Amino acid sequence: MDSNSVFSVQVCEKECREIHEYASSRRLNDLVPSLVRRNRYERKQIRETYLVMYGEDLINHLQKTQSNHTNQKYSLLSLWMLEPHERDAVMARNALEDGDINYKALIEIYTGRKSSQILLINQAYQHKFKRQLDQDIISFEMSHPFQRILVALATSHKSHNVDVSQHIAKCDAKRLYETGEGKGGSGGGGIEESVVLEMFSKRSIQQLRQTFSTYKHIYGHEYSKSIKKDVYGDFEDALGIVVKCIYTPAKYYAKILHSCIKGTTTDKGALGRVIVSRAEIDMDEIQRVFENKYGIELKDAILCENMMIMDKPQRDFIVALANIHYPS
């Protein structure tokens, strides 16, 4: 399949025929070079055309193939072919169903998406799973700090605040300082959770990002560094992760990927999840941060270090996806 061709109806139909043939004969490796280069609109066209041609949703066909084969690459390929909001809905459900709740996967969704996108994710989640995502989050482990932060973030998305105010950012930065490291003493007794949760429930992600930027400008270091200055508790640990995900996402994801590649994380699905979900958002920046921090290109790190923890087809798919450069 020629990924450089003009994506005409004829090209789309040709690719659908090849997908059907390759999937049926378990030759999905042959699909990777082309499908990873298709943007979301072309992938949507492929899915719609496949349905017309074969009377079956392409995702269902790929999932049936997966059920007859243990290769996880098929699951990642299925996720890649979904619309972004559908993919996030599936990832959210997976995070809630994995036994131990995957808080980081949920945080990545709620901090990395606009409010309009969260609305679509909620709709897709309800349509596919006949459940309310917000209610599922509210109902699990109410004593866990990540849960309390997620509830606050979900509330903020409902307000659809889009304008960023420097005045609010300055006031919020000062409030974070006064209720955290600025209280004095050794650790000052910890961060005032109620203040943080109120702020997270009322401010958009863009506004919070501006607040953290203003905090660094005023006090000379990132807010996440202030959280590390003294020994706090579980809430502060969770807050530090959330702040990094909001303020410096490329650094956050580069660290996650490095932990996956080195096998030092219990979040075994994070490598595929991050690369699939960030490929069309900021993967170029993540790759730059990764290479600057760890002295090796991301694709080379995956190839060098993952020989034993994933099979070759899965690794090839992830490397191909990580190595694509999408126009901004």
UniProtKB/TrEMBL annotation:
GO BP: response to cold; response to heat; response to salt stress; response to water deprivation
Biological source species: Papaver somniferum
Keywords: Annexin, Calcium, Calcium/phospholipid-binding, Repeat
Pfam families: Annexin
Gene3D superfamilies: Annexin (1.10.220.10)
SUPFAM superfamilies (alphabetical): Annexin
Protein name (database record): Annexin
Coiled coil stretches, renumbered: none
GO function terms (MF aspect): calcium ion binding; calcium-dependent phospholipid binding; phosphatidylserine binding
GO CC annotations on file: cytoplasm; plasma membrane
